[in-house]
Amino acid sequence: MPESSKLHGRRRYARLTTALLGLSLVGCGTSFGLAGDETPLTARGKNQQPVPLTPMWRVDLEPSGVIREDGQQLAAAAYDPQGGRVWIGSGDRSWFYGLRASDGHELWKTKLAGGTSGHAIFDDGRVVVGSDGGEVVAFQGATGEVLWRYSVQGAVTAPPTVSGQSLLVVDGTNAVYALDRQSGAWRWQYRREAPGRFALYGEGAPTAVDGRVHVGFSDGVLVTLSAKDGAVLWTRDLAPEAEQFEDVDARPVVIGGRLYAASVAGGLYALDAAAGTVVWTRSVRGIVTMRGIGEDLVAGLDRGAIVRIDPRTGKARWRVKLAEHEGAPTAIESMGKLIAVTTATGALHLLDARSGRPVWHFDPGGGFLAPPTVGADGSLFALANSGKFFAFRPGGLLPPLPPVNPLANGTGRGSP
Questions:
Q1: Would you say residue 3 has pLDDT above 50?
Q2: Which terminus of the chain has fewer CB atoms gathered within 10 Å of its CB, N or C?
Q3: 53-60 and 78-80: which strand pairing?
Q4: Rounded to whole angstroms, what are the CA distances from 144 to 85, 99, 104, 133?
Q5: Cβ–Cβ < 8 Å for 146, 138
Q6: What integer pLDDT is reported at residue 115 of this predicted model?
Q7: Among residues 12, 47, 11, 21, which one has the least CA distance to residue 364?
Q8: Domain range annotation of the chain
């Protein structure tokens, strides 16, 4: 998308950060307490209670003594619980790190062109990540050896999507590429013209189901392609009357043969996944992130709300309003009976998936623009806007949280 559009999107979430960052990344990570301080985790105290996540360690991905001007970090980690490794990039320093998951110890690091604001994935021993300089790079996860590179025309921030023997990658120029998983060789690509007006920064990852690739673009159009050769199967304009911010940035969701997609300005659509015909629409403006949780949809709105939606009717099952200082939700991830939510200028929250009730929160200061990574073993990794990379393990005991509800109004019911 146009550079002016990207800058507008960045400023939309930007928050001036004046705090000095901590130690640079050296050796093992630092143990920290619930508020991100360096309180040891081994001490036992009175009045402790079970918690869904316990802090393990943190590492600082930014140099010591640097004051960030924009307070933004966008990179998300890849995690291999069996191999005990986690990988994360840093946008400012251009480093991509391989770390030991148990303590944050640095195993290897390498520089990537333009920095890394992308979401890495772990794929059969390989780690694949896109760079801000327009490269897609596959590493051998254990050693950091580069296995292949492929150059695209714009920054790659969304996670690559596995589809058979292909990796699907979107870049900042309204293009989607299919690359061979083993070699990185080009298979096909599809491109749309970027709108000549303001759009939001970033792109939504494709969704690949049943031989079809569903991907949204900044002009408000949802396109379904053949996973085999990239042929267009159907298109649908989700914001025909909007003049700006038509972006389809939330990743499309497929549930039971129906496809759910949203334009920021155009609202939420339920479509037949095979034919693209409209089943229903809801004028829910401002959906910036969305996830299938169980048989439902959970959407994050730019005005600071989380909504669980019945996909059969489009009606809300529950709604949570964030406090004003939290900013917009930036990602939603499933954690079994819980939902993890990060916010642009606030905390990492865990909500009860069934009711939306807030269960736990962690606020290191500065917020989380980057999505959290949830492992199959229940571990969670998240990069804060301060440049601090946090690791949590499931369960444990900690002192109780302050009695103040970190969310503004708890939960409610009604329309999205």
A1: no
A2: C
A3: unpaired
A4: 12, 11, 16, 19
A5: yes
A6: 85
A7: 21
A8: 1-72+286-416
Is domain 1-72+286-416 given the CATH code 3.90.78.10 in the classification? Answer: no
Q: Report which of 353, 338, 358, 334 is spatially closest to residue 410, judged by C-alpha positions.
A: 358
> Burial of 5 by CB count in 10 Å (0-12 exposed, 13-18 middle, 19+ buried)?
buried
Q: Tell if the pTM clears 0.90, that is, is over it.
A: no
pLDDT of res. 410: 38
In this structure, which amino acid lies at residue 193?
E
Mean pLDDT to the nearest integer, 116-134: 94
Strand partners, 186: 179
Question: Is the pLDDT score of 252 beyond 80?
Answer: yes
DSSP SS3 for 4? helix
**DSSP assignments along 168-183, one per residue:** EEEETTTEEEEEETTT
Q: Is 323 exposed, middle or buried (0-12, 13-18, 19+ CB in 10 A)?
A: middle
Q: Assign residue 332 a region (left: φ > 0; alpha: ψ between -120 and 50; beta: otherwise).
A: beta
| Least confidently predicted of 23-32, 190-199, 328-337 | 23-32
Residue 303's nearest CA partner among 317, 287, 283, 290 is 287
What six digits make up the tokens of 392?
């949590």
The answer to whether 130 touches 171, Cβ cutoff 8 Å, is: yes
Task: For residue 246, give both structure tokens.
Answer: 């038509």
DSSP state of 76: B
More confident residue, 64 or 297: 297
Contacts of 403 (CB under 8 A, 6+ apart): none
**Long-range CB contact pairs, 264-270, < 8 A, 24+:** 264/200, 264/239, 264/288, 264/302, 265/220, 265/239, 266/220, 266/238, 266/239, 266/240, 266/241, 266/242, 267/238, 267/239, 268/299, 268/309, 268/314, 268/416, 269/222, 269/236, 269/238, 270/311, 270/314
Are 59 and 388 in contact by the 8 Å Cβ rule? The answer is yes
* End-to-end Cα spacing for the chain: 29
Q: What pLDDT score was predicted for residue 398? A: 72
Give the pairing type, strands 126-130 and 135-140: antiparallel
Burial of 298 (0-12, 13-18, 19+ CB in 10 A): buried
* Whether 224 contacts 233, CB under 8 Å: yes
